[in-house]
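Lecture notes, unit on protein representations.

Consider one protein chain, 509 amino acids long.
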Amino acid sequence: MPTPTTMNGLLLSADPTARAIGAPGRAWLDFAGLCGLSARIIRQLREFGIAASDRVAIVLPNGPEMATAFVTIVQAAATAPLNPAYRLEEYAFYLGDLRAKALVVPEDYTGPALAAAKLLNMVILRLHFNLQDPAGTFWLTGPEGIAPAPADLPDAKATALILHTSGTTSRPKIVPLRQHNLAASAQHIAKSIVLTPADCCLNVMPLFHIHGLVAAVAASLSAGGSVWCAPVFNAHKFFGWMQEARPSWYTAVPTMHQTILMRAARNRDVIDAHPLRFLRSSSASLPAQVFAELQSTFGVPVIEAYGMTEAAHQITSNPLPPRLQKPGSVGLAAGPLVRIAHETDNRLVDGIGEVVIAGPNVTAGYEGDPEANSKSYFEIDGLRWFRTGDQGSMDDEGYLRLTGRLKEIINRGGEKVSPLEVDGVLLDHPAVQQAVTFAIPHPKLGEKIAAAVVLREGHDATEAEIRVFAAKRMVSFKVPCRILIVDDIPKGATGKLQRIGLAQKLGLV
């Protein structure tokens, strides 16, 4: 048996010929090829003056080259993947805030990231590949005459991945994740869903986000499994990709699952011909109705997990059968320790409160933001707990149920309303496919409750009918005063529904 290969703590595969990275219409890149690619890219980065402590921003479209760029560069320096859809002002902010030394872009790229990088005098590295080569194979070109950097590699405490928080209500915060944070999280995920070398993940998540980078790519590789990289999420192409990739699982956010379900009936033959072992949902709460429909449609376990950037993704996960799954719950602790804390006092409590975590996958703190760190961390009995900003409770069996983001809880004249609870009621209406509840300002009450819904294909309903339906199922002050029926609900870059700011986007204020 060949000796297992490790990449900064992530076990790759005991079999170098095993497939690692796949993509539409491309030959598979095996683990031996991936390890060889890693060695070449590390040498190239050093030749371009990039040291282990330097930061390399990556602006690439989703696909196998983005996956392998992350996996290879992270072994040599700190990676900072950025959304390819950003504008010049956004790139100027993020690249400057990150203090990135180099930028990796496609060979023919002329977009705003390049202009921002030039303003900051960054090293520009061009990524090249041939479609005839195995998926993910690439090489870099860059400026000449740069003094080479030392050959040292990052250690376990070195920064590996740098991402920003969403910054919905404030300036985005920098989250530095160390090599050991990523390794721990990848292994936690692989263990919780029992990944093996036989597993193949169909990745539809953006690879500038922690969900795709760690849950799909790093966790799969840490188990010696494989990843098939879709170019972008496209529900119209999903079942064709499923037919080509023959995955054993995929992971996505709830809105993606809902869009896939809308096209599942007409692709029954593909689902039956290529059965999954399970599917996974994370990054936002999965409504119980969507959980049940996914389970019925695919006939396999639906694993809902809970994660966030500051935890290098996974915090809790529902277990695979025969262990109990609880729809509406985000499962059991699956990596870090998980407890409930008082929302303002630094103490642990029973009942409902703020979810707090401590463990090897949790970031040591926000970069350059002592005020945020003082609010986000507290110590009890030698453990340093991180406040997630999520409200929830744990039952007697240790299953965590989230009530919502603390900053998204609606305060209607002193009555606290969980938008997730209202979402659940609206989704019980037979005509409602998607629902998101949010606050709108009110001069006397402070906030009122509104909701946006998308109707199921072929179904009709009016705002009044949906409000009557809701009023029969919950107390009157929780019933939305406005229900907007829309074709599509505005989403963030990763496909998550965004409650904060939705009233403005929908023209209600």
